[in-house]
Structures are given as structure tokens and as C-alpha cells.
């Protein structure tokens, strides 16, 4: 399975309704602080919407709800892994993306044979408080050398302008939040992201 190089993250299905139809092919639903009933409704709606638009949905954190709602891909961070039943996740056929921020976390992620590994924050992020300093671009090259064919996601402080350098440094996929959600024109920004990431795919094929 080849994952699209543009991987936006949104905190509601309303965002997905607005932006997925523009041509997003890989998206994460990352919701915090909602009731189980609300989460379930969001995940259910997001699944239907993504199916209608041939977009791969990745559910953050809530692997049990993802399984129950018939989703097929989740993202878990290192703290989520402490609590997760990986046997049940695998038995349920869920594909898995895992966060990493240092070598020990990378080793742990690799042992799980995940479907992608994320490294962040590459640049400073304003989305959430993190204990990690910015990793910088060279770290992406180090990670790519370690993980080989597993897709590498760069996340944290991403922008359209930074994306080419992030790919050149070793990322296969760029994941982004506030460059879109805080933009004055999120639709136009998504179109710019799609253009720049499609150009990257074309360049790769021609190389
Ligand atoms: C693509 C991607 N990379 C990293 C994260 C962060 O996951 P995590 O560390 O579990 O933190 P939360 O996002 O759950 O706050 C991610 N969600 N997606
Ligand atoms: C959710 C998340 N995880 C990160 C990590 O490094 O694991 S950075 C991040 C936030 C990304 O948001 P923005 O594109 O607005 O910086
Ligand atoms: Mg998490």
C-alpha cells in the first residue's frame, strides 16, 4: 500500500467534510477531550466520508473505537502504546502508524513492524506543548537510513514552503495541522499542499 505524501491532521469531521473533497488522499482524525459517544459519531462519519472520497482515514489514539467502527488504520504515540492491546490491534487487521522522538522510541517502533513511523517535531510546533526540542532536517535522513522501506512521516511546524526540504531530507510523507487550520483560506492552502506534494511524486518517478 502506497501512502499519499500529503498527510493533514484535523480535529473534527467538519474539517474533513470541508477539505477532503478537494483531493486529500490520506488524513488523520485527531480528537481530544470528547465523550465516547461523540468520538464514535465523529469516527463513523469520517469513515463514511473518506470511503466516499477514496481517502485513507487514520484514527488517532482510539484504536478500540476504530476497530468497532470498521476503520483499518490507527496512529499511536509511545504513551498510547503503553496501554494498547497490540494483539487485538493486529488480530483486527488494523494498520498502525507510530510516533517517535528519539532513538529508544524508534527502536520500540521498529520492533512493532509498523506501517509508517513518524518523527517529530521537525520544526517547532504551536499545536501542543512538547518535551522534545525541534529535531531538525538531518535527523530525517538518519531515521530514513534506519527504517529503510517503512514510510517516514515528518511532522511538526510543517508548511508548504518547508515541504520540499523535508522530502529532500528523507521524509516520504509530510504531516501538517496549523499551516492549514490557522490559514486565512484553508481550502486554498490545501490546494497548494496538493500541488507541491504531487510535484514531489512526479519528480521521484522521473528521477
Ligand atoms: C503523524 C503523527 N505523528 C505524530 C503524532 C503524535 O502522536 P502522539 O505522540 O500520540 O500525540 P497525540 O497526537 O495523540 O497528542 C500524530 N498524532 N500523528
Ligand atoms: C500532533 C503532533 N505530534 C507531533 C510529534 O512530534 O509527535 S508534532 C504535532 C503537531 C503538528 O502540528 P503543526 O503542523 O501545527 O505543527
Ligand atoms: Mg496519541
UniProtKB/TrEMBL annotation:
Instruction: Show the CDD domains listed in the entry.
Output: TMP_TenI
Q: Which reaction does it catalyse?
A: 2-(2-carboxy-4-methylthiazol-5-yl)ethyl phosphate + 4-amino-2-methyl-5-(diphosphooxymethyl)pyrimidine + 2 H(+) = thiamine phosphate + CO2 + diphosphate; 4-methyl-5-(2-phosphooxyethyl)-thiazole + 4-amino-2-methyl-5-(diphosphooxymethyl)pyrimidine + H(+) = thiamine phosphate + diphosphate; 2-[(2R,5Z)-2-carboxy-4-methylthiazol-5(2H)-ylidene]ethyl phosphate + 4-amino-2-methyl-5-(diphosphooxymethyl)pyrimidine + 2 H(+) = thiamine phosphate + CO2 + diphosphate
Please give one Gene Ontology molecular function term for this protein: metal ion binding
Cofactor list: Mg(2+)
**Which Gene Ontology CC terms are recorded?**
cytoplasm
The pathway it acts in is: Cofactor biosynthesis; thiamine diphosphate biosynthesis; thiamine phosphate from 4-amino-2-methyl-5-diphosphomethylpyrimidine and 4-methyl-5-(2-phosphoethyl)-thiazole: step 1/1
**Signal peptide annotation:** none
Q: Which residues form a coiled coil?
A: none
Keywords for this protein: Magnesium, Metal-binding, Thiamine biosynthesis, Transferase
Q: Look up the EC number in the record and give it.
A: 2.5.1.3
Query: The Thiamine phosphate synthase/TenI domain covers which part of the protein?
Result: 12-180
For this chain's UniProt record, which GO biological process terms are given?
A: thiamine biosynthetic process; thiamine diphosphate biosynthetic process
InterPro entries for the chain: Aldolase_TIM, ThiamineP_synth_sf, ThiamineP_synth_TenI, TMP_synthase
Question: Which domain of life does the protein's organism represent?
Answer: Bacteria
Q: Which family does it belong to?
A: Belongs to the thiamine-phosphate synthase family.
Q: What is this protein called?
A: Thiamine-phosphate synthase
Amino acid at each position: 500500500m502506497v501512502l499519499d505524501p500529503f498527510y493533514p491532521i484535523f480535529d473534527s469531521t467538519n474539517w474533513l467534510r470541508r477539505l477532503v473533497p478537494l483531493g486529500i488522499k490520506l488524513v488523520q482524525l485527531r480528537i481530544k477531550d470528547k465523550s465516547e459517544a461523540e468520538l464514535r459519531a465523529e469516527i463513523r462519519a469520517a469513515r463514511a466520508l473518506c470511503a466516499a472520497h477514496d481517502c485513507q482515514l487514520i484514527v488517532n489514539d482510539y484504536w478500540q473505537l476504530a476497530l468497532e467502527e470498521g476503520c483499518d488504520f490507527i496512529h499511536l504515540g509511545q504513551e498510547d502504546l503503553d496501554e494498547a492491546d497490540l494483539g487485538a490491534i493486529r488480530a483486527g487487521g488494523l494498520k498502525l502508524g507510530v510516533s517517535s522522538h528519539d532513538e529508544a522510541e524508534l527502536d520500540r517502533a521498529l520492533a512493532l513492524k509498523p506501517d509508517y513511523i513518524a518523527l517529530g517535531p521537525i520544526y517547532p510546533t504551536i499545536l501542543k506543548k512538547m518535551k522534545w526540542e525541534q529535531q531538525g532536517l538531518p535527523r530525517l535522513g538518519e531515521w530514513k537510513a534506519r527504517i529503510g522501506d517503512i514510510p517516514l512521516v515528518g511532522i511538526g511546524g510543517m508548511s508548504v514552503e518547508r515541504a520540499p526540504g523535508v522530502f529532500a531530507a528523507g521524509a516520504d510523507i509530510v504531516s501538517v495541522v496549523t499551516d492549514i487550520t490557522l490559514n486565512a483560506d484553508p481550502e486554498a492552502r490545501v490546494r497548494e499542499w496538493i500541488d507541491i506534494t504531487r510535484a514531489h511524486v512526479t519528480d521521484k518517478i522521473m528521477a
